[in-house]
Amino acid sequence: MSTRSKIVYTLTDEAPALATYSLLPIVKAFAASADIAVETSDISLAGRILATFNDRLPAEQRIQDDLAQLAKLTLSPDANIIKLPNISASVPQLKAAIAELKSKGYDLPDLPEDPQTEEEKEVRARYAKILGSAVNPVLREGNSDRRAPAAVKAYARKHPHSMGKWSMASQSHADYMRGGDFFSSEQSFTMDKAGEVRIEFVGKDGKVEVKKTLKLEAGEVLDGMFMSARKLREFFEKTLQDCKETGVMWSLHVKATMMKVSHPIVFGHAVTVYYKDVFDKYGELFKELGVNPNNGISSVYEKIKSLPASQQEEILHDIHEVYSHRPEMAMVDSVKGITNLHIPSDVIVDASMPAMIRNSGQMWGKDGKQKDTKAVMPESTYARIYQEMINFCKTNGAFDPTTMGSVPNVGLMAQKAEEYGSHDKTFELQADGIVRVVLADGTVKLQHEVEAGDIWRACQTKDAPIRDWVKLAVTRARQSNTPAIFWLDPERAHDNELRKKVELYLQEYDLSGLDISIAGYNEAIRVSMERLIRGKDTISVTGNVLRDYLTDLFPIMELGTSAKMLSIVPLMAGGGMYETGAGGSAPKHVQQLVEENHLRWDSLGEFLALAVSLEETGIKTDNVKAKILGRTLDEATGKLLDNDKSPSRKTGQLDNRGSHFYLALYWAQALAAQTEDAELATQFAALAKTLTEQEKTIVAELNANQGHQVNIGGYYRPDQELVNKVMRPSSTFNAALDTLA
Amino acid sequence: MSTRSKIVYTLTDEAPALATYSLLPIVKAFAASADIAVETSDISLAGRILATFNDRLPAEQRIQDDLAQLAKLTLSPDANIIKLPNISASVPQLKAAIAELKSKGYDLPDLPEDPQTEEEKEVRARYAKILGSAVNPVLREGNSDRRAPAAVKAYARKHPHSMGKWSMASQSHADYMRGGDFFSSEQSFTMDKAGEVRIEFVGKDGKVEVKKTLKLEAGEVLDGMFMSARKLREFFEKTLQDCKETGVMWSLHVKATMMKVSHPIVFGHAVTVYYKDVFDKYGELFKELGVNPNNGISSVYEKIKSLPASQQEEILHDIHEVYSHRPEMAMVDSVKGITNLHIPSDVIVDASMPAMIRNSGQMWGKDGKQKDTKAVMPESTYARIYQEMINFCKTNGAFDPTTMGSVPNVGLMAQKAEEYGSHDKTFELQADGIVRVVLADGTVKLQHEVEAGDIWRACQTKDAPIRDWVKLAVTRARQSNTPAIFWLDPERAHDNELRKKVELYLQEYDLSGLDISIAGYNEAIRVSMERLIRGKDTISVTGNVLRDYLTDLFPIMELGTSAKMLSIVPLMAGGGMYETGAGGSAPKHVQQLVEENHLRWDSLGEFLALAVSLEETGIKTDNVKAKILGRTLDEATGKLLDNDKSPSRKTGQLDNRGSHFYLALYWAQALAAQTEDAELATQFAALAKTLTEQEKTIVAELNANQGHQVNIGGYYRPDQELVNKVMRPSSTFNAALDTLA
Asked: Each residue of A58-102: pLDDT tens digit?
């Protein structure tokens, strides 16, 4: 059936992967009725690890490199991909996954901490490609179009999520470096013609070391910037002193998962500044033990386990002593005593800041109580927008979901545009000297004087994605008849390069009747917020990092979650990728499932994405049934929201599995009720009848086993049979679905 | 000598009036050398009272109505007026002045508190015209041009005043009504053609009462707005609860002196809400006693003096009790226990808010310590700019006088434009009903539903002043090559009427190369502040109230005082008025003079104004000597600043009189040194020589009597002979000046 349409559904990690066991059979059954095949692609962390080491595994353990296949597919006009959220692995997560796979009999090499031999270096390099934001960049062959679907927005207005009150006297704020950071050192230029550039380090002795050679396209923008380690440490110390004086709680907000090279280093500096006394005293010992502060203070706890008990006690005592003279630190888990500096993946700025703002600007202290907080975000480029929003909330009170407008986003992202991790172009410098970017002809385009420890990075942005981004912005502004603001900061060298292109490419369009403007970040967010509280929408047209940040920030204010956003990647080659659940892969959900057999993951994002995906398939292949499937799925989703059949957070109540049942019920009912395609109506009438009649039985079967521990045979690569049993416990429902086949 | 040029120097009140005794003889002596007569005009509070009641005084006590004469003069192209600051009298100040004059043998009527008879009403009406901002509106036949002179700005950059550090964790903020205030009810329209309008009150019974009839010109803008007493009181209560919860100090900021009808009522509501328990308990008694909360809680202290001691004690006890459950209130004088609600003239928003912002956002508590403060400014129209600045300081730290730019002002003010007291068009409503503004033909142009107690007011703005204001803005933008922003808020009906005119009148000018824009208040102040901290200047082109507020706010940040601003009123008829010392009339300075014979008043504003006045005279009458006098006076002023010969605040050091001596010395030296006019050089060479030689003697004579009490024979109308002796104690200096005659 080579002409059969195909939707690729990704298998990922944690909660969404578990939910897929329950949802996918429904989707496959329904889609088959329109002759659409729903295939899967395993891009889970474990899957990627195994595929990466295929050559070292015995034949029976080898798996196909699905991610590579999927990346190829994005370049085809037929691509139709449902992309679920996956883990952006930190080093500790990667290590845990390796350990689990090894325990399952996969003979994988360990992650070399400090690679020495060629082999170790090669292994390290392979693993490095799996770390952090490794999936999205290779798939995102298009820019990003994210917005709150009408049904979701209407639901939020009718059933507003809780929003913590803001006091005008709140002491909370976002603090960031005033100089010495990436923002203040950014330089940028655009390539006249295609060519190679070298990133070079020139030592004090004049010796030149080529750190990296890049092939750049004509019109490509390259930025160079660095963060001073010295100024960063001074900044951390100053924020700590400040909190000590004012009594405001200290909290660090970085993105060590995505910014997998630079931010763990930043995080490590925070750890060694906060626990300065301990690292001063035990520096040598910690080095011997292999303590890596970039992995958090937990690295100390872990590594000292090899020491005699008395010595461990002494160190723990000294760590404890630190708390007596350092300010109170925000907790990730106050019950378990897990602080903000425990591991680098716990506090992720784009999720943690909206949560704090939604929570009256407060985080939780060690006593479990909410407190005013200094949110420390060293890099000022984007931190300023949070301070702007905090000031706004102090002045105008919390946002009101029942009346506020919306801020959809059009984000520059295609072809690793502004890849904000820029992992392979980020260097922690080992000596004082100069880093420069040099053209093939020797022309120095960028140059920075740096010190040992400074973090230097370059960032590439190709021309075609920028052009496509401008087009997408104009299209969205036109289609939704909404003002659009390009967030381009006049104080950023990179943005000024982009501004020239934007102004040029905008001329290619008829802008009559459109309100399209360009503004710096503070002004852009301020104008958007002023409109927001007056019920007005404003499209944010942003670079890649702001895309990431804003598509959490505004949805969390508007909808209480970013997982309910429609997230489309119109691929530059003509296909479409539909991302779901921007809210992450929810490790806490997995924990609840394992301990209480309740999965609170909300597959709403999947429902929304599938509907658009089905509709798009219908349009492209002129498949009426596919269009009807899409439209009725949207109807079913609206009904599900209205009838409050989304998963509850509480064990014992309807969970993910139950919400899937209701989706199937409403979808079948909608298909049975439609009159456009009689065949479909007949086909689903029976199912609708069965599900309607068996509602009580099925829900009872789905909820029956909640409250008990379950075994899913693994975290990163759970056992398929076990999960299948856990996630499909209703034989009545399963049997009903089987009748469709 | 009818062709002799004339400068009119105003005699006013308090410190500047006392300083005039010392400065004027110098000015007269120097000006005479260019054949310029310096005449005086008595517009002091006492002078105005006496002139107002000329018909009731015996012939020998009658004085000329100088203010009326001066008002006439402003309509002449020859007008050249040095206008010193005068008292904007509150009711208590007016009463004190009347009492003093009576004690001096003037048989004046008392101010009737609650006029009943026709005569009482007539007396009350006469006094009403003296209250508040009564002088400026009749003199200001031109718009306002205020800026920091280059020498002053340079001095501030070199010798920065102290600026309290701002903490990002500061709890201070400005709180204002969100609805129910003038801002939210403002309506506005422009007259097509000249005509009469009636302000009418329509009672619930349908009866129509004409409150006021106004004759409006073609193109004149009329606004109507009201403040809900009920919502105002709810707002006050909410702010008090909020402070109680957060521990932030409560502070009220109004302008009861200038807004002499509306703001005392607002102030009175604050008093009766804060002291609610006391007013609830003793309401009837207080009414009998004639307690008027609009005069502050001091009115209670004053009126209960007639009660038996035990009853007084009980009331005082109950007042004391209030403090135990109300939040801490900011103090005007913590030593003397004078709170913010003591009398309405103590905390004047345009002076108190910049002081608070300069002081780390803090005011003083009853223990004399600085504390974070909720600055309560009920009317939101302008309060929002203070909150914007507070947020800005929290985010960016205190302004830095050594690097910051400047925000000069071009203010709409001529012909009582936007007279923001609008005293004769402000009504406290006695019953529920409707207030409307009706054209002669019966068309209703504005209409508000009001309740008893609400404050309704109208505000007029003529067309010609707006046109002149636009012209002045363009002129200033061109002459100083500085961007100019018209502060016109899109959410204000009045501003939207003005915007139409501004956009129209701007078309009359060649704007090429100019950066002239229009922005709402928050945006305008934000843009100005962002530029300010980057060392850039931005002209604020504002309405009358913002003129008043901003010409304190920015100068106090930039220069530490608004008294050093150059304040020019280019009169529409062609003349010029040069205002000095926007910092008020400084009652505390008088107190120090009387107690310690040290006058710390800084006449810098007078020096700057005189220099421009002399230069203008020179240009208009082609008087070279006048031009030289002006130029050399500026030189002398610069030298005085550089040599730090401004008055010290400390008794025993150089004071106002000493600074005048140095001005004369430097001025004479500059005149002697100039080569443009030999006659002038010769004439002043002798004086320069004498003053240079006698410097030590003169300064010793000037400072000799400091540290002792002096008697000036009155506060509002001191004895001329006595003041003359006190202010001119150096016989050596006096004799030297006499040689010029």
From this structure: 999 999 999 999 999 999 999 999 999 999 888 899 999 999 999
Given 3-state DSSP classes, what are the helix, strand and coil percentages for chain B, each rounded to the nearest 5? 50, 15, 35
CB contact under 8 Å between B169 and A248, yes or no, is yes
- Residue B527: how many CB atoms within 10 A of its CB? 16
Interface-testing mutation among A165, A168, A245, with chain B (most B C-beta atoms within 10 A): A168
Does B210 show up as a binding residue in the annotation? no
Candidates B30, B31, B26, B22; CA nearest to B4 is B31
Task: Work out whether strand A173-175 and strand A370-376 pair parallel, antiparallel, or are unpaired.
Answer: parallel
- The reply, when asked if residue B633 is annotated as ligand binding, is no
CA distance B623 to B5: 9
CA distance B168 to chain A (A): 7
Residues B41 and B81: their CA atoms lie apart, in Å, by: 9
Residue A650, C-beta contacts closer than 8 angstroms, at least 6 positions apart: A598
Residue B552 assigned ligand-binding role = yes
| Burial track A496-532 (b if 16+ CB lie within 10 A, e otherwise) | ebbbebbeebbeebeeeebebebbbbbbbbbbbbbbb
Please choose, from the candidates A737, A540, A573, the residue with its C-alpha nearest in 3D space to the C-alpha of residue A32: A737
Q: Which residue has the tokens 């019950």?
A: A335
Tens of pLDDT, residues A119-158 = 999 999 999 999 887 888 789 899 999 999 888 998 999 9
ipTM of the complex: 0.85
Q: Report, as an integer, the average pLDDT of B259-283.
A: 95
| Spatial separation of the C-alpha atoms in residues A175 and A379, rounded to whole Å | 9
Which residues of chain B make contact with A170, given a CB cutoff of 8 A?
171
Cα distance between residue B672 and residue B667, in whole Å:
9
Predicted pLDDT at B1: 35
Q: Which residues of A touch B394 (CB under 8 A)?
A: 173, 391
Range of weakest confidence among A177-191, A696-710, B124-138, B438-452 = B124-138
Residues of A with CB under 8 A from a CB of B: 167-171, 173, 175, 242-243, 245-248, 372, 374, 387-388, 391, 394-395, 526
Angstrom CA distances, B204 to B207, B208, B434, B449, B452, stand at 7, 10, 8, 10, 11
Work out whether strand A576-579 and strand A566-570 pair parallel, antiparallel, or are unpaired. antiparallel
Q: Do B246 and A395 touch (CB under 8 A)?
A: no
Nearest to A169 among B167, B173, B391 (CB): B173
- Of all residues in chain A, the one with the smallest CA distance to B243 is A169
Enumerate the domain spans of chain A. 183-227+418-459
DSSP helix/strand/coil, A198: strand
Task: Confirm if A407 and A554 have CB atoms less than 8 A apart.
Answer: yes
- Binding site for NADP(+): residue ranges of A? 83-88, 136, 584-585, 589, 600-602, 649
> What is the DSSP secondary structure assignment for residue A132, as one 8-state letter?
B
- In the prediction, which pLDDT does A1 show? 35
Q: Is the pLDDT of residue B583 over 70?
A: no
Phi–psi pair at B410, nearest 5 degrees: -115, 110
Mean pLDDT of B354-380: 96
Which pLDDT value is given to residue B2?
37
Q: Which of A169, A175, A388 sits opposite B246 (nearest CB)?
A: A169
Positive/negative CA dihedral, A309, A310, A314, A320: positive
Q: Report the top-level CATH class of A183-227+418-459.
A: mainly beta
The annotation status of B137 as a binding-site residue, yes or no, is: yes
* Spatial CA neighbour of B174 closest among A482, A725, A394: A394
Is the pLDDT at A483 greater than 50, yes or no? Answer: yes
Of B167, B175, B374, the CB nearest to A246: B167
> By C-alpha distance, which of A522, A534, A531, A529 is closest to A487?
A522
